[in-house]
């Protein structure tokens, strides 16, 4: 009886390999045939969307697990707010401030952080700001900005829910003078 059992085991393996090959061919046909939808205007299905969200949440949790937030003074948080205005508001908006129009055409849409950051720790917000989220349009500010500044921005993001539109409007934009300088043709390194 050993032989037929061996035979069926071998044919099961062969079947599995054939299936793998078929899947690889199908994937190649989708990619090289130009069938993969890259348009930002095309929506992900509910299953794909929730898979991507799970992947992001667990990756951020794992990556930020070893980080310890410094302590912040009220002045640190205020400074973080004026950087937020210049670095984050364009996409995410702020208290009483709409995002720029282009943000409405992004997929995924940059969320309102007063709500979306509610479940995140300061360290997780810092990690996201420093490293970005690939394939979403969320930039990594670690390339251009110091950790010290990004921690302050993260501390401000965690306070966003409590910031009134009036207080937010009163914050100076920490990046405005740089933009004005650049428009005037004075090139210099950020920070
Ligand atoms: C060019 C647009 C853009 C800018 C500028 C930007 N973001 Fe984002 N951000 C995004 C997008 C798009 C997402 C959504 C990513 C996703 O759905 O996975 C996102 C997601 C996030 C998240 C995760 C929210 C969640 O639901 O878990 C945080 C936190 C965040 N951004 C913080 C910041 C901070 C802080 C700044 C400024 C330092 C900033 N972002 C600047 C586009 C931007």
UniProtKB/TrEMBL annotation:
Residue span(s) of domain Cytochrome c: 75-161
Keyword list, A-Z: Heme, Iron, Metal-binding
Domain of life according to the entry: Bacteria
InterPro entries: Cyt_c-like_dom (IPR009056), Cyt_c-like_dom_sf (IPR036909)
SUPFAM superfamilies with a match to the protein in the record: Cytochrome c
Protein name stated in the entry: Cytochrome c
Organism: Sphingomonas anseongensis
């Amino acid at each position: 009886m050993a032989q037929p059992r061996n035979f069926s085991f071998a044919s099961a393996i062969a079947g599995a390999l054939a299936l793998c090959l078929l899947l690889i061919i199908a994937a190649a046909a989708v990619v090289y045939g130009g069938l993969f939808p890259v348009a930002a205007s095309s929506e992900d299905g509910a299953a794909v969307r929730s898979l991507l969200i799970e992947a992001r949440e667990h990756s951020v949790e794992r990556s930020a697990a070893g980080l310890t937030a410094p302590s912040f003074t009220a002045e640190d948080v205020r400074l973080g707010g004026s950087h937020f205005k210049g670095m984050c508001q364009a996409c995410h908006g702020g208290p009483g401030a709409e995002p720029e129009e282009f943000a409405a055409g992004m997929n995924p849409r940059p969320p309102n952080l007063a709500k979306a950051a509610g479940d995140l720790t300061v360290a997780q917000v810092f990690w996201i700001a420093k490293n970005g989220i690939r394939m979403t349009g969320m930039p990594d500010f670690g390339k251009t900005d110091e950790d010290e500044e990004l921690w302050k921005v993260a501390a401000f993001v965690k306070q966003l829910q409590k910031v009134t539109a009036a207080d937010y409007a009163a914050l100076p934009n920490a990046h405005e003078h740089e933009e004005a300088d650049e428009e005037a043709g004075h090139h210099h390194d950020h920070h």
